[in-house]
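[stage:ingest] chain + small molecule (nicotinamide-adenine-dinucleotide)
[stage:ingest] validated
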Amino acid sequence: MTIIVTGGAGFIGSNFVFHMLNTYPDYRIVCLDKLTYAGNLSTLAPVMDNPKFRFVKADICDREAVNTLFEEEKPDMVVNFAAESHVDRSIEDPEIFLKTNILGTATLMDACRKYGIKRYHQVSTDEVYGDLPLDRPDLFFTEDTPIHTSSPYSSSKAGADLLVLAYHRTYGLPVSISRCSNNYGPYHFPEKLIPLMIANALNNKLLPVYGEGINVRDWLYVEDHCKAIDLIIHKGRVGEVYNVGGHNEMKNIDIVRLICKELGKSEELITFVKDRKGHDMRYAIDPTKIHNELGWLPETCFADGIKKTITWYLENRAWWENIINGEYQNYYERMYKDR
Ligand code: NAD
Ligand code: TYD
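[stage:predict] done
[stage:export] C-alpha coordinates:
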Protein backbone atom coordinates (compact mmCIF):
# COMPACT_ATOMS: atom_id res chain seq x y z
CA MET A 1 0.00 0.00 0.00
CA THR A 2 1.39 3.39 -1.01
CA ILE A 3 -0.31 6.52 0.32
CA ILE A 4 0.45 10.07 -0.78
CA VAL A 5 -0.14 12.41 2.17
CA THR A 6 -0.24 16.03 1.03
CA GLY A 7 0.44 18.77 3.59
CA GLY A 8 2.30 16.26 5.77
CA ALA A 9 4.75 18.90 7.02
CA GLY A 10 1.91 20.81 8.70
CA PHE A 11 0.12 20.25 11.98
CA ILE A 12 -2.42 17.48 11.37
CA GLY A 13 -0.65 16.02 8.32
CA SER A 14 2.56 15.37 10.27
CA ASN A 15 0.64 13.73 13.11
CA PHE A 16 -1.07 11.56 10.46
CA VAL A 17 2.27 10.59 8.88
CA PHE A 18 3.56 9.47 12.30
CA HIS A 19 0.33 7.60 13.03
CA MET A 20 0.40 5.71 9.72
CA LEU A 21 4.10 4.77 9.86
CA ASN A 22 3.60 3.47 13.43
CA THR A 23 0.36 1.64 12.73
CA TYR A 24 1.19 0.14 9.32
CA PRO A 25 4.95 -0.55 9.19
CA ASP A 26 4.59 -2.17 5.75
CA TYR A 27 2.88 0.85 4.12
CA ARG A 28 4.84 3.35 2.05
CA ILE A 29 4.01 6.94 3.04
CA VAL A 30 4.93 9.67 0.57
CA CYS A 31 4.56 13.24 1.82
CA LEU A 32 4.03 15.95 -0.77
CA ASP A 33 4.30 19.43 0.73
CA LYS A 34 5.10 22.89 -0.63
CA LEU A 35 6.63 23.97 2.69
CA THR A 36 4.73 27.22 2.96
CA TYR A 37 5.13 29.32 6.11
CA ALA A 38 3.02 26.62 7.85
CA GLY A 39 5.10 23.66 6.70
CA ASN A 40 8.14 22.65 8.68
CA LEU A 41 10.60 20.03 7.52
CA SER A 42 12.13 19.73 11.01
CA THR A 43 8.78 18.32 12.17
CA LEU A 44 9.37 15.30 9.94
CA ALA A 45 12.99 14.79 11.07
CA PRO A 46 12.12 11.68 13.15
CA VAL A 47 10.90 9.82 10.01
CA MET A 48 13.22 11.19 7.33
CA ASP A 49 15.48 8.12 7.51
CA ASN A 50 12.62 5.62 7.58
CA PRO A 51 12.90 3.59 4.33
CA LYS A 52 9.09 3.49 4.16
CA PHE A 53 8.91 7.30 4.05
CA ARG A 54 9.64 9.77 1.26
CA PHE A 55 9.37 13.56 1.32
CA VAL A 56 8.79 15.53 -1.87
CA LYS A 57 8.70 19.32 -1.92
CA ALA A 58 6.03 20.37 -4.42
CA ASP A 59 2.87 22.43 -4.82
CA ILE A 60 -0.41 20.51 -5.16
CA CYS A 61 -1.35 23.06 -7.87
CA ASP A 62 1.68 22.04 -9.96
CA ARG A 63 0.16 19.56 -12.40
CA GLU A 64 3.47 18.42 -13.81
CA ALA A 65 5.01 17.75 -10.39
CA VAL A 66 1.88 15.96 -9.19
CA ASN A 67 1.70 13.79 -12.33
CA THR A 68 5.40 12.92 -12.09
CA LEU A 69 4.92 11.82 -8.49
CA PHE A 70 1.95 9.63 -9.47
CA GLU A 71 4.02 8.03 -12.25
CA GLU A 72 6.87 7.34 -9.83
CA GLU A 73 4.85 6.12 -6.87
CA LYS A 74 1.65 4.65 -8.36
CA PRO A 75 -0.23 5.47 -5.15
CA ASP A 76 -3.16 3.40 -3.89
CA MET A 77 -4.55 6.33 -1.94
CA VAL A 78 -4.22 10.09 -1.58
CA VAL A 79 -5.07 11.86 1.67
CA ASN A 80 -5.19 15.61 1.10
CA PHE A 81 -4.31 17.77 4.12
CA ALA A 82 -2.55 20.45 2.05
CA ALA A 83 -4.34 23.75 2.47
CA GLU A 84 -4.09 27.33 3.55
CA SER A 85 -5.71 26.88 6.94
CA HIS A 86 -5.87 30.13 8.90
CA VAL A 87 -9.13 32.12 8.89
CA ASP A 88 -7.46 35.44 9.80
CA ARG A 89 -5.02 35.15 6.89
CA SER A 90 -7.92 34.36 4.54
CA ILE A 91 -9.66 37.56 5.64
CA GLU A 92 -6.47 39.51 4.91
CA ASP A 93 -5.90 37.95 1.46
CA PRO A 94 -8.26 35.27 0.06
CA GLU A 95 -6.54 34.53 -3.27
CA ILE A 96 -4.02 31.88 -2.19
CA PHE A 97 -6.86 30.08 -0.36
CA LEU A 98 -8.78 29.76 -3.60
CA LYS A 99 -5.69 28.57 -5.48
CA THR A 100 -4.43 25.99 -3.02
CA ASN A 101 -7.66 24.79 -1.48
CA ILE A 102 -9.80 24.60 -4.64
CA LEU A 103 -7.48 24.39 -7.67
CA GLY A 104 -4.99 22.24 -5.73
CA THR A 105 -7.74 19.77 -4.84
CA ALA A 106 -8.83 19.60 -8.49
CA THR A 107 -5.24 19.06 -9.65
CA LEU A 108 -4.78 16.14 -7.25
CA MET A 109 -8.08 14.57 -8.28
CA ASP A 110 -7.24 14.97 -11.99
CA ALA A 111 -4.08 12.94 -11.35
CA CYS A 112 -6.18 10.35 -9.51
CA ARG A 113 -8.46 10.09 -12.55
CA LYS A 114 -5.55 9.86 -14.97
CA TYR A 115 -3.53 7.21 -13.12
CA GLY A 116 -6.29 5.44 -11.16
CA ILE A 117 -6.71 5.34 -7.39
CA LYS A 118 -8.38 3.18 -4.74
CA ARG A 119 -9.31 6.16 -2.58
CA TYR A 120 -9.00 9.95 -2.65
CA HIS A 121 -9.68 11.35 0.82
CA GLN A 122 -10.34 15.05 1.37
CA VAL A 123 -9.59 16.43 4.83
CA SER A 124 -12.26 19.07 5.29
CA THR A 125 -13.60 21.06 8.21
CA ASP A 126 -16.78 21.65 10.20
CA GLU A 127 -16.43 25.31 9.19
CA VAL A 128 -18.14 24.50 5.86
CA TYR A 129 -21.42 24.38 7.81
CA GLY A 130 -21.09 27.99 8.99
CA ASP A 131 -21.94 28.57 12.62
CA LEU A 132 -24.63 27.78 15.19
CA PRO A 133 -26.27 30.25 17.56
CA LEU A 134 -25.02 30.33 21.17
CA ASP A 135 -28.57 30.12 22.55
CA ARG A 136 -29.39 26.81 20.81
CA PRO A 137 -27.16 24.22 22.55
CA ASP A 138 -29.51 21.53 21.18
CA LEU A 139 -28.28 22.13 17.59
CA PHE A 140 -25.31 20.25 16.06
CA PHE A 141 -23.79 19.92 12.60
CA THR A 142 -24.76 16.65 10.91
CA GLU A 143 -23.60 15.54 7.46
CA ASP A 144 -26.96 16.81 6.15
CA THR A 145 -26.54 20.34 7.52
CA PRO A 146 -26.46 22.69 4.51
CA ILE A 147 -23.12 24.22 3.50
CA HIS A 148 -23.27 27.86 4.63
CA THR A 149 -19.84 29.43 4.94
CA SER A 150 -18.65 32.61 6.63
CA SER A 151 -14.97 33.22 5.79
CA PRO A 152 -12.91 33.02 2.60
CA TYR A 153 -11.15 30.03 4.25
CA SER A 154 -14.33 28.06 4.91
CA SER A 155 -15.72 29.02 1.49
CA SER A 156 -12.61 27.67 -0.22
CA LYS A 157 -12.88 24.43 1.77
CA ALA A 158 -16.57 24.16 0.87
CA GLY A 159 -15.73 24.75 -2.81
CA ALA A 160 -13.22 21.90 -2.62
CA ASP A 161 -15.77 19.59 -0.94
CA LEU A 162 -18.31 20.27 -3.68
CA LEU A 163 -15.70 19.49 -6.34
CA VAL A 164 -14.77 16.24 -4.58
CA LEU A 165 -18.41 15.12 -4.56
CA ALA A 166 -18.79 16.23 -8.20
CA TYR A 167 -15.74 14.15 -9.25
CA HIS A 168 -17.38 11.17 -7.56
CA ARG A 169 -20.69 11.63 -9.31
CA THR A 170 -19.34 12.70 -12.70
CA TYR A 171 -16.23 10.54 -13.06
CA GLY A 172 -16.92 7.83 -10.48
CA LEU A 173 -13.77 8.80 -8.53
CA PRO A 174 -13.69 6.79 -5.26
CA VAL A 175 -13.67 9.67 -2.78
CA SER A 176 -14.43 10.28 0.87
CA ILE A 177 -14.55 13.46 2.95
CA SER A 178 -14.05 14.04 6.67
CA ARG A 179 -15.27 17.25 8.31
CA CYS A 180 -13.57 17.65 11.66
CA SER A 181 -13.89 20.19 14.43
CA ASN A 182 -10.96 22.22 15.83
CA ASN A 183 -7.85 20.12 16.53
CA TYR A 184 -5.17 20.73 19.13
CA GLY A 185 -1.93 18.92 20.03
CA PRO A 186 1.78 18.76 19.13
CA TYR A 187 3.14 20.67 16.10
CA HIS A 188 0.17 23.09 15.99
CA PHE A 189 1.38 26.27 14.27
CA PRO A 190 1.51 29.14 16.79
CA GLU A 191 -0.82 31.44 14.83
CA LYS A 192 -3.80 29.37 16.08
CA LEU A 193 -5.56 29.97 19.41
CA ILE A 194 -4.14 27.26 21.70
CA PRO A 195 -0.44 27.31 20.69
CA LEU A 196 -0.49 31.11 20.38
CA MET A 197 -1.76 31.47 23.94
CA ILE A 198 0.74 28.89 25.28
CA ALA A 199 3.68 30.59 23.53
CA ASN A 200 2.61 34.12 24.57
CA ALA A 201 1.96 33.07 28.17
CA LEU A 202 5.38 31.38 28.39
CA ASN A 203 6.93 34.62 27.12
CA ASN A 204 4.77 36.73 29.50
CA LYS A 205 3.18 38.46 26.50
CA LEU A 206 -0.44 39.68 26.35
CA LEU A 207 -3.06 37.06 25.45
CA PRO A 208 -5.26 38.61 22.72
CA VAL A 209 -8.84 37.30 22.97
CA TYR A 210 -11.10 38.38 20.09
CA GLY A 211 -14.36 40.16 21.01
CA GLU A 212 -15.74 38.97 24.32
CA GLY A 213 -14.16 35.52 24.12
CA ILE A 214 -17.59 33.85 24.16
CA ASN A 215 -17.25 32.08 20.79
CA VAL A 216 -17.44 28.32 21.15
CA ARG A 217 -15.24 25.73 19.43
CA ASP A 218 -15.50 21.91 19.67
CA TRP A 219 -11.93 20.72 20.43
CA LEU A 220 -10.52 17.32 19.44
CA TYR A 221 -7.06 15.93 20.21
CA VAL A 222 -5.20 15.60 16.89
CA GLU A 223 -4.44 11.88 17.32
CA ASP A 224 -8.19 11.15 17.52
CA HIS A 225 -8.67 12.96 14.20
CA CYS A 226 -5.85 10.91 12.62
CA LYS A 227 -7.45 7.68 13.83
CA ALA A 228 -10.79 8.76 12.36
CA ILE A 229 -9.20 9.36 8.94
CA ASP A 230 -7.39 6.00 9.16
CA LEU A 231 -10.78 4.30 9.72
CA ILE A 232 -12.52 6.22 6.93
CA ILE A 233 -9.90 5.46 4.26
CA HIS A 234 -9.90 1.75 5.14
CA LYS A 235 -13.52 1.09 6.06
CA GLY A 236 -15.58 4.18 5.20
CA ARG A 237 -18.01 4.12 2.31
CA VAL A 238 -17.00 5.69 -1.00
CA GLY A 239 -18.80 8.93 -1.85
CA GLU A 240 -19.61 9.64 1.80
CA VAL A 241 -18.99 12.54 4.16
CA TYR A 242 -18.12 11.78 7.81
CA ASN A 243 -18.26 14.41 10.57
CA VAL A 244 -15.57 14.04 13.23
CA GLY A 245 -15.81 15.61 16.68
CA GLY A 246 -15.78 14.67 20.33
CA HIS A 247 -18.56 16.78 21.92
CA ASN A 248 -16.06 19.00 23.66
CA GLU A 249 -17.41 22.52 23.31
CA MET A 250 -15.56 25.32 25.06
CA LYS A 251 -15.64 29.12 25.06
CA ASN A 252 -12.38 30.71 23.93
CA ILE A 253 -12.02 32.66 27.17
CA ASP A 254 -12.29 29.46 29.23
CA ILE A 255 -9.50 27.86 27.18
CA VAL A 256 -7.26 30.89 27.70
CA ARG A 257 -7.98 30.92 31.44
CA LEU A 258 -7.19 27.20 31.64
CA ILE A 259 -3.86 27.73 29.86
CA CYS A 260 -2.99 30.52 32.35
CA LYS A 261 -3.84 28.20 35.23
CA GLU A 262 -1.84 25.25 33.89
CA LEU A 263 1.20 27.47 33.30
CA GLY A 264 0.87 29.34 36.60
CA LYS A 265 0.45 32.67 34.78
CA SER A 266 -1.72 35.61 35.82
CA GLU A 267 -5.04 36.15 34.03
CA GLU A 268 -4.03 39.80 33.89
CA LEU A 269 -2.17 38.87 30.71
CA ILE A 270 -5.57 38.44 29.01
CA THR A 271 -6.52 41.39 26.79
CA PHE A 272 -9.75 41.67 24.83
CA VAL A 273 -9.08 42.89 21.29
CA LYS A 274 -11.12 43.83 18.20
CA ASP A 275 -13.25 40.93 17.02
CA ARG A 276 -12.55 38.90 13.88
CA LYS A 277 -14.67 40.02 10.90
CA GLY A 278 -17.60 37.64 10.33
CA HIS A 279 -16.55 35.67 13.43
CA ASP A 280 -18.39 32.32 13.67
CA MET A 281 -20.13 31.99 17.04
CA ARG A 282 -20.29 28.27 17.68
CA TYR A 283 -19.17 25.03 16.06
CA ALA A 284 -20.53 21.71 17.34
CA ILE A 285 -20.26 18.36 15.58
CA ASP A 286 -22.68 15.44 15.77
CA PRO A 287 -20.35 12.42 15.25
CA THR A 288 -23.14 9.79 15.30
CA LYS A 289 -22.49 8.59 11.74
CA ILE A 290 -18.78 7.79 12.16
CA HIS A 291 -19.52 6.21 15.54
CA ASN A 292 -22.35 3.99 14.27
CA GLU A 293 -20.74 3.00 10.95
CA LEU A 294 -17.06 2.77 11.88
CA GLY A 295 -17.05 2.51 15.68
CA TRP A 296 -14.97 5.68 16.07
CA LEU A 297 -14.91 7.39 19.45
CA PRO A 298 -12.44 9.98 20.74
CA GLU A 299 -9.90 8.50 23.17
CA THR A 300 -8.30 11.60 24.70
CA CYS A 301 -10.48 13.83 26.88
CA PHE A 302 -9.76 17.56 26.87
CA ALA A 303 -8.43 17.63 30.46
CA ASP A 304 -5.70 15.11 29.50
CA GLY A 305 -5.16 16.39 25.96
CA ILE A 306 -4.50 19.98 26.98
CA LYS A 307 -2.02 18.83 29.67
CA LYS A 308 -0.20 16.65 27.10
CA THR A 309 -0.20 19.56 24.64
CA ILE A 310 1.17 22.08 27.15
CA THR A 311 3.86 19.59 28.22
CA TRP A 312 4.80 19.12 24.55
CA TYR A 313 5.20 22.89 24.05
CA LEU A 314 7.31 23.09 27.23
CA GLU A 315 9.54 20.22 26.10
CA ASN A 316 9.82 21.39 22.48
CA ARG A 317 10.53 25.07 22.91
CA ALA A 318 13.08 25.08 20.05
CA TRP A 319 10.38 23.95 17.58
CA TRP A 320 8.05 26.90 18.18
CA GLU A 321 10.66 29.49 19.14
CA ASN A 322 12.29 28.91 15.79
CA ILE A 323 8.95 29.75 14.16
CA ILE A 324 8.02 32.78 16.23
CA ASN A 325 11.50 34.28 15.88
CA GLY A 326 11.23 34.29 12.07
CA GLU A 327 8.78 35.77 9.54
CA TYR A 328 6.03 35.12 12.09
CA GLN A 329 7.02 38.37 13.83
CA ASN A 330 5.89 40.41 10.80
CA TYR A 331 2.62 38.47 10.74
CA TYR A 332 2.05 39.07 14.46
CA GLU A 333 2.79 42.76 14.12
CA ARG A 334 0.38 43.08 11.16
CA MET A 335 -2.40 41.09 12.80
CA TYR A 336 -2.27 42.31 16.40
CA LYS A 337 -0.53 45.71 16.58
CA ASP A 338 -3.56 47.97 16.15
CA ARG A 339 -6.16 45.47 17.17
P1 NAD B 1 -1.39 23.65 8.53
O1 NAD B 1 -1.57 25.05 8.05
O2 NAD B 1 -0.71 23.40 9.84
O3 NAD B 1 -0.58 22.80 7.43
C1 NAD B 1 -0.84 22.90 6.07
C2 NAD B 1 0.27 22.18 5.32
O4 NAD B 1 -0.02 22.21 3.92
C3 NAD B 1 1.65 22.83 5.49
O5 NAD B 1 2.64 21.85 5.68
C4 NAD B 1 1.87 23.55 4.15
O6 NAD B 1 3.24 23.67 3.79
C5 NAD B 1 1.11 22.63 3.21
N1 NAD B 1 0.67 23.34 1.99
C6 NAD B 1 0.01 24.52 1.92
N2 NAD B 1 -0.21 24.85 0.64
C7 NAD B 1 0.28 23.84 -0.11
C8 NAD B 1 0.34 23.59 -1.50
N3 NAD B 1 -0.16 24.47 -2.39
N4 NAD B 1 0.91 22.45 -1.94
C9 NAD B 1 1.45 21.56 -1.06
N5 NAD B 1 1.43 21.75 0.27
C10 NAD B 1 0.85 22.88 0.73
O7 NAD B 1 -2.85 23.01 8.50
P2 NAD B 1 -3.53 21.95 9.50
O8 NAD B 1 -4.09 22.66 10.65
O9 NAD B 1 -2.61 20.81 9.68
O10 NAD B 1 -4.76 21.48 8.60
C11 NAD B 1 -4.62 20.41 7.67
C12 NAD B 1 -5.94 20.20 6.96
O11 NAD B 1 -6.96 19.91 7.92
C13 NAD B 1 -6.43 21.42 6.20
O12 NAD B 1 -6.99 20.99 4.98
C14 NAD B 1 -7.49 22.03 7.10
O13 NAD B 1 -8.46 22.70 6.33
C15 NAD B 1 -8.05 20.79 7.77
N6 NAD B 1 -8.62 20.98 9.12
C16 NAD B 1 -7.89 21.61 10.09
C17 NAD B 1 -8.43 21.72 11.37
C18 NAD B 1 -7.65 22.35 12.49
O14 NAD B 1 -8.18 22.51 13.60
N7 NAD B 1 -6.38 22.70 12.30
C19 NAD B 1 -9.71 21.21 11.65
C20 NAD B 1 -10.42 20.57 10.61
C21 NAD B 1 -9.86 20.47 9.36
P1 TYD C 1 -8.38 29.56 15.46
O1 TYD C 1 -7.40 28.77 16.24
O2 TYD C 1 -7.88 30.57 14.47
O3 TYD C 1 -9.35 28.51 14.76
P2 TYD C 1 -10.77 28.75 13.95
O4 TYD C 1 -10.98 30.19 13.76
O5 TYD C 1 -10.50 28.07 12.66
O6 TYD C 1 -11.80 28.10 14.79
O7 TYD C 1 -9.32 30.33 16.48
C1 TYD C 1 -10.09 29.64 17.44
C2 TYD C 1 -10.95 30.66 18.16
O8 TYD C 1 -10.10 31.52 18.92
C3 TYD C 1 -11.74 31.57 17.22
O9 TYD C 1 -13.01 31.84 17.79
C4 TYD C 1 -10.92 32.84 17.17
C5 TYD C 1 -10.29 32.91 18.54
N1 TYD C 1 -8.95 33.55 18.62
C6 TYD C 1 -8.71 34.55 19.56
O10 TYD C 1 -9.59 34.93 20.34
N2 TYD C 1 -7.47 35.12 19.61
C7 TYD C 1 -6.46 34.74 18.76
O11 TYD C 1 -5.34 35.33 18.83
C8 TYD C 1 -6.71 33.69 17.82
C9 TYD C 1 -5.64 33.25 16.86
C10 TYD C 1 -7.97 33.12 17.79
